[in-house]
Amino acid sequence: MDWVFIKDVKNYDGKEVTLKGWVYNKRSSGKIWFLIMRDGTGIIQGVVLKNEVSEEVFHQEDKLTQESSIIVRGLIHADKRSPGGYEIVVRDIEVVQIAKDYPITLKEHGVEFLMDNRHLWLRSSKQWAVLRIRHTVYYAITDYLNQNGFYRFDSPLLTPNACEGTTTLFSVPYFELGNAYLSQSGQLYLEAGIMSLGRVYDFGPVFRAEKSKTRKHLTEFWMMDAEAAFVEHEQNLKIQEELIRFVINAVLEKNPDDLEILERDIDQLKKADAPFRRITHAEAIAFLRSKGSDIDAQSDLGAKDEVLLTENSAVPVFVEKWPKEIKAFYMKRDRENPNLVLGADLIAPEGFGEIIGGSQREDDYDLLYQRMVAENMPLDDYRWYLDLRKYGSVPHSGFGIGLERLVQWMSGTKHIREVIPFARTIYRLKP
RNA sequence: UCCGGCGUAGCUCAAUCGGCAGAGCGGGUGGCUGUUAACCACUAGGUUGUAGGUUCAAGUCCUACCGCCGGAGCCA
Q1: What is the DSSP string of A85-113?
Q2: How many domains does chain A have?
């Protein structure tokens, strides 16, 4: 008898199969009982009839508890009364292990309890759906890049210094060399990579030791950094837009069931697959002031500002051309206005906030050097980075996507801790 | 780090003005042949976060501490 995955049972209508998985729920009614089981690929209802199975199998109902592991054999058939449209008429149930006192019920639970039991919470249907969407987003990003001439280039996670110098880094003892720091971005290394491979990306965990305490921050999160030689600001934005729209379409195509489990408004995602809006930072400030904000002209955008800027927009919004003072040292100056840099943040609609930060990079040795001196950066540690402007410097651009932010938006998840298997936040390191 | 809030059964919560600690879920026992977070009956389950204080009496009021949640800043 074939072992099949629940997602494939529709191909086995009228056939006997074996399913392997876990008890999700059960309902009994005297001489008939229903077994809801899941196997990682889907969920299906089993029907156990008293006069069609042995006494022993029928009385498994007494023993089976939520999340007990089981192997079920039976006949697949379509039935409208069954959730999912198919069910298995059970012939035999083999118990692998009986779960005792599984703590997470199908009722409501609090955040702290669920996070303490994250290792089990992952099995719940909404968490399962989010993880499947995360998988799609991850592979859609790399598919797009691989199809567009980007090579995967793995940046180091242990680094001698801050990438941007501003945020706090986690430090770890490093033999005789003092402290190493966990990377907060592989970008600078990617800039070396493009001089070899032309277009490169990395995709891995990065670390921020800031005591951020919001629904969009993690101390460990996954970032995809891409970098491309001879690509300037305009083309940089074009690549970003194509990539994000590629991801939207992948999720809509591959995860309709998951979006439904999450009660995600699919129309919102469909509407976002259209040309993105673009405004300059100065226009953003003017707009926010017209809405009653007293935001400073040299100010970064706060969470509320991001919401205001996108509240009437179905598509993501690029905010470009920022005052150089509030952006990183490596961003290239705007030829038309030396007080601005050619950077852009991409803000997702529906209040999900910034999902991409990118820029054209400064490729002029002297300008970069001056800027680094002005920021008191340890030049010795960045000699190699300056070298890139000495030996065949080219215009180039890049951007970084926060995977969890993007998954948050795609899945419509309110808090970022639910879109990564095991969230690391300021007050949580377990499980 | 700052501002605000919450800690009561395994879980989610209730407990009026300070006056006998309770319900649903989950567990256990029994019933039911098409259930959809099934339902019905019965049942076990408590150091009210910790330490002090006020009071005849504290889950409730006061102080400190601990834990957590939400938000801000910073960023992806």
Answers
A1: SEEEEEEEEEEEE---S-S--SS---HHH
A2: 2
**Nucleic strand B under 7 Å from the C-beta of A330:** no
Nucleotide nearest A211, from its CA to each C1': B1
pLDDT tens digit sequence for A193-227: 999 999 999 999 999 888 888 888 999 999 999 99
* Strand B nucleotides with an atom less than 7 Å from a protein beta carbon: 1-2, 10-13, 24-39, 67-76
Positions of chain A with pLDDT under 50: 163, 166
What global pTM score does this model have?
Answer: 0.93
- For position A79, which CATH number holds? 2.40.50.140
Confirm whether A107 is domain-assigned: no
- What whole-number distance in Å separates Cα of residue A120 and Cα of residue A136? 22
In angstroms, the CA A362 to CA A368 distance is 6
Q: Given this model, what pLDDT does residue A166 score? A: 47
Question: For residue A202, what is the enclosing H or E element?
Answer: strand A199-207
Nearest residue to A303 via CA among A185, A213, A236: A213
Residue nearest to nucleotide B31 (CA to C1'): A30
What's the pLDDT at A149?
A: 96
- Contact assessment for residue A198 and residue A368, using Cβ atoms and an 8 Å cutoff: no
Domain final position from A97, A128, A148: A97
CATH number of domain containing A396: 3.30.930.10
What is the distance between the alpha carbons of residues A268 and A409, in angstroms, rounded to a whole number? 10
What are the pLDDT digits (tens) for A119-166?
Answer: 999 999 999 999 999 999 999 999 999 999 999 999 999 988 754 554
* CA triple A100-A104-A105, angle to 5 deg: 95
